[in-house]
Every structure is written in C-alpha cells, then in structure tokens.
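P.,

For your records, the input lines for the assembly:
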Amino acid sequence: MRLQLEFDWSLAPAHNVIARMPGTERPDQWILRGNHHDAWVIGARDPISGLVGLMAEAKALGRLAREGLPPRRTVVYAAWDAEEPGLLGSTEWAEHHAEALREHAAVYINSDSNSRGFLRAGGSHALETLVNQVAGEVEDPQTGVSVGERLLAFRRVNGNRTEYERLQSSGRLRIAALGSGSDYSPFLQHLGVSSLNVGYGGEGSGGEYHTAFDTFDFFRRFVDPGAVYGAVLARTGLRLTLRLANADVLPFEFGATAATAGRYINEVADLADEERRKIERENELLDSAALRLAADPTKPFVEPEGDPPAPHLNFAPLRNAHDRLALAAKVADRALAEAVRSWRRGHPGDARRVGHKERAPADPERGSAASALVPASSLCAGHVHRLRCEDVAGSAGGDRAARLGRGPMADRHHRRRTGRLRGAVGTDGRATGSVEP
Ligand SMILES: [Zn+2]
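Structure tokens returned:
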C-alpha cells in the first residue's frame, strides 16, 4: 500500500467563548466550568455531547438568576477552542489570566465527551466528599437509583476483593486521579487550581473516537440515544457548580487528600519490593542455568545478562511527611466542622450577618503536594475560611497550612463563616480544633 499524505500547515485563529456571572456575595471567588467545542472532524460525541450538557447548565443558571437566585460566588462558563491539537485554547486562556486565576479561581470543573452508562469522576481528592454527595442525588435514568448507587454496584461487581470489602463497609466512592488529556490540565497541573473532570460512559459503543464516523447519526443510534445521559451530565455539572458557588465554606475535605497520598506511597513502596523480588528471581534462574535448560535446544537461545540487584529505597522521609499531611488535614477538617457547628449554635436562623473581607481562597493544590506538608506540631488561629497557621516548630509550612484551611461544609446553607479558629495537634498526635467568637 502507498499512502499519499497532504498536510495543511496554515495557522488559524482559535476562539474561546467565555461567559461570566458575577457572584452576589463573593465575586472574588470564581467557580469555573468548561468543555471544549472544537473537534477533529464532526465531533458529535467528542466534544459536543459534553458541550450541550454544559450549555444546558449555563441556561439553567441564567434562569435561576433571573428568578432571583444568582450565585453567591462568581461562575465562569467556558467553551474552549483548539483542545484537540494540544489543549491550546484553555492553556492560552489560563496563561493569559494566570495571575487573576491564582488569586480568584476556587475550582475548575471540566467535562469532555459523554456517553451512556456510569458516572466517571476524577480530580482533586479534597472534592471527593462533594462528588459522593452529588452522585447520591442525581438519578440514573436507566435504573431509577442514584448514579452513585449504580456506580457502587458496578464497582462491587467488577472490583477486586479488597475494593469489594471496602465498599461493603464504607459505601464511599473514590474518585480517580487525573492525568492529562483534556482542558483541566492548565488549571490543575499548571496553576494548581483544584479540579474535577466528570462524564458518563461505559455503555455507549465505541470505535468512532477521533474519526469521521463521530457523527450525530452514529451518536443518536449507538452512543446515547435520546441524549439521555447528556441531561444527566447537565444535572451533575450544575449541582457541582451551584454547590461550590453557593456554599458558605468551600466544600473541601482534606482527609481524602491525605488518605489518597498515603495509598499512593504504599503503592510505590510495594512496586519497589516487587521489582526487587523479580530481579532476584531472574538472577537466580540465570545462576542455576535453568533458563538455558528450559529453552528449546533446536531454537536460537541467547542467555540474558542479568540485572544488578535493585537497591533498597528509604521511604521513611516520605512517610513522615505524609504523617504530617494527615495530621494537618485532620486539624483543618475538624476545626472547620467545629467552626460551622459553633456558628450555628450562636446564630440560629441568621444567615446574613457576617461578612468580613477575605482574600480569595488559597488552594490546597497550589504548589506541589510536598509543599503542602506542614509540621505535625502546628498551631492554627484564624478565620474559618482561611486558617492562619503559625508553625510552633519553627520550620517552613505555616503558609501552606493556611492553604489547607478550607472546610467540608458545602451544604450548610444559611450558615456564614465567622469566629476565630484554633486547631492544634497534640504530642499524642490527636487533632483538636475550636472556635473563639
Ligand atoms: Zn474531547
């Protein structure tokens, strides 16, 4: 076969479409929601199936505002161009507005292609609780249970035994880690804005990805007939966006971040052990001539050279750092929960009294994960929304601890932030938090 190839190397402008609705109470905190609009060819599934969901959300948000329920935080909707050739539209926008985004962006929620089936959510693990809450409220159109319950069933059926037992006891869905491949990248990996990627899939047929067959006709016949899951995506995306936009305290829960980091460390340590055992075994087989004896003598056989033994790695500094992260997360989570409870006790029925000037949210994803590690012995005092932490041990990390100061209370409507917050980790490793009026 001979292929004759032709390329069009000309440059073309890319157009992002950005819509912004200013928040009524916290216009300085931005919730961003995006999906790309460009496609390789026709792109009925990638990206239009996701984009129509996003547009339905934006419409609903506009209607809520007209009816007197505008968002408390600023909401920015984005339809990105030039995603396919390299995330160009979102990356240029994020680079152009980097300073403002570092200052104001609280969370970026991405979607891309959508299909029929199960909820797929990945992203910053501090948002895992929020995803679980939303997954419990959106109805799966094929089964009538929540999309969370359906996904739980799928994972119990298809997961390994450990996963099965964990889900039996906790019922809590874990969200996936995000690599790259869609427009969350410039936000999550370049600017360090906490991000989510959501969509539905697993039951739509495939094969048309990035080809001329990704047409509307194929989509409506084989991928998501009736665009039923397009509507489900809109319900999911809008719930996530509105909760973030209207919560008194941004719904971060740092215990999940720490737990996830701990699991990753265990995985890496196991991988190192496994690799060491593999090399040892191969070298033993080589030494005992077993490889040669097991080979077919009528076929060519080249004895491998063998690898040098794998060194033992010291994971102690990493594990110690993780202990500090876990304690800092515990302090932040407990202190914030207590702060909200305390305020509720002190202000029954009063939703609007408190309003102090705060900076935009510092972010747990900002900077490397390692820089978010704070010393175990830390004392925090500050506003609930942004902990001011003084590191009593005197080493670096206080500011990072401040960045961990956002709490889990997404859904405490009519409860505003107030009070001075104190949290500490004692010598026994127990975290405590309290609030001063
Ligand atoms: Zn796409």
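Two observations worth noting. Strands lie at 17-21, 26-36, 73-80, 105-110, 117-123, 194-202, 379-383, 389-390, 420-425, 431-436. Residues 60 and 81 are 23 Å apart (CA to CA).

Regards
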